[in-house]
Structures are given as C-alpha cells and as structure tokens.
Predict the structure of Short-chain dehydrogenase.
Amino acid sequence: MSGQWYEGRVALVTGAGSGIGRAVAVRLAAAGAWVVGCDLDAEALAATGKAIADAGHHVTTVVGDVSAQADVDRIVAQLPDGRVDVLANVAGVMDYFLPVTEVDDLTWERVMAVNVTGPMRLSRAVLPLMRAAGGGAIVNVASIGGLTGAVAGTAYVTSKHALVGMTRSIAALYAEDGIRANVVCPGGVETNIGRTATPKVPWAYQRLEKSFARTTRVAKPDEIATLVSWLGSDEAVNVNGAVVASDGGFTA
Ligand SMILES: NC(=O)c1ccc[n+]([C@@H]2O[C@H](COP(=O)([O-])OP(=O)(O)OC[C@H]3O[C@@H](n4cnc5c(N)ncnc54)[C@H](O)[C@@H]3O)[C@@H](O)[C@H]2O)c1
C-alpha cells in the first residue's frame, strides 16, 4: 500500500543513522522517496545509506549537526534540484533524567539546541522551498515527554513540549500554502537513545519510575516510522497540526 506513497518525492530525514530516523529513512526510500539523510554520526549514517542503496533505492547522506546553521545550509544544499516534499525532524537527545534543580547549563543548552533549534532551522530552510513548490509536509518526532512531565528530565520535557508548539505554529501559519505539519509522540522505543538516558540523579529517577509502570510495551523503531510515513503522505491530506501519540496506551 505505502509502496506508491513517495514515488518521485524527496524526503529529508534527520537522525537517519540510528533508531527511529533510520527506520523512517529506510521506509520512505522503500516507498519510492529519494531520501536525503543526515546525522552527526558518520559511520552510522553510512550504514543507513548503504542499506538503502543496496536495496536499489535513492539516497544522499550528509554528515552534520542539525543545531548548527552552517550544517543545515550544507544539508539543504544536497536536496536534488532544491526539492523537498517531506521533512522528518527525528534527531534528538535525552537529558539524563535531570530535574531542574540539578540540570547543568551544558545539558540544558544541548538538549534545546538539538531538539528545538534543529527542527526550527530545518523548517526555516525548507518552508520557502515547499511554498514555492505549492506544498509539502513536515513530520516532527517529539515524545510522550511532549505531553506529560513524568517521563524524562526537565530539559527534555521542555524541549518536546516546545516541539509540539512549533509544529502547531507551522500548521496554523502555512496551511494556506498547502503545507501540513504534524508531530508524533512515541512512548518507549528500542533504539540507541540510551547514550543520553543514563539517570544521574537517583531521587528524581525514582519519582519518575512510578509513571513508567504504565508502560504496556516497548515499540520497534519501524512501528513509529509507519506513522511518520503516513503523516508525510497524501493519505493524510486533511491532517494538519495533529499531535499523535504512539505509545501503546501510556498516555491513555
Ligand atoms: N527511543 C525512545 O524511547 C524515544 C521515545 C520518544 C521519543 N523519542 C525521540 O525519537 C527521536 C529519535 O531518537 P531514537 O530513539 O531513534 O535515538 P537514537 O539515538 O537511536 O537516534 C538518534 C540519532 O540522532 C542523531 N543525532 C543526535 N544529535 C544530532 C544532531 N545534533 N544532528 C544530527 N543528528 C543528531 C544521533 O547520532 C542518532 O543517530 C528523538 O527525537 C527522540 O527524542 C525516542
């Protein structure tokens, strides 16, 4: 079914080296998209690029940091013929479950830079291209941390609530240009995000753990990618500004 959705389309996917971003890149390429994938991790990104190319699909990879304007400029310069139909902002980092009283400036600034400033910079870069082309779709990956305060530290929760707000703002402001923006809020997913998810403050983590008891299942990355793929496709033409949880019922 989704095999035809992206034929002739260009999809820019951030965080394409691992986890959900890799699953999105692979899925959109298999559905016909020319994927422009970016990631900070050159080796991981190359592996995604090889998997897509070996399957006979189109892919361009660009190593870069979504929070850095110069890197965003380089990433956007790689779009074939300056075209982009879908932007999937997937790259993100956790915050070691730090409560606000213990958060250090470096962690705060990095989490906000990657999870909020990055999607803003990419949206700012691609929206003029989408407007000129007469339409497009942005799909952001936030988290249930964008819906509730009880699943991560203060920086992560703040960043994901901000990303939900950014998505709604774009949806409201650019609908008349034929552009849709939606945001997916996953619950727990089996990925490599654990690198920034080691709890550093025991008392805070113990309080958060009480809410983790609500977890019904941990998702596979592709179970999130299916939703990103649908929201970015024409099948979702009437869906704009939606905040969609994919969490097995955690926030039910
Ligand atoms: N794994 C979960 O349980 C879960 C739950 C809810 C939301 N999310 C969100 O899903 C998204 C993807 O995370 P994941 O779980 O697949 O993690 P992951 O660590 O497996 O993948 C994230 C990728 O983003 C890349 N990245 C990090 N910072 C970057 C930057 N500044 N520029 C470019 N690339 C960068 C990393 O190198 C990595 O390859 C994140 O936004 C995360 O917050 C994850």
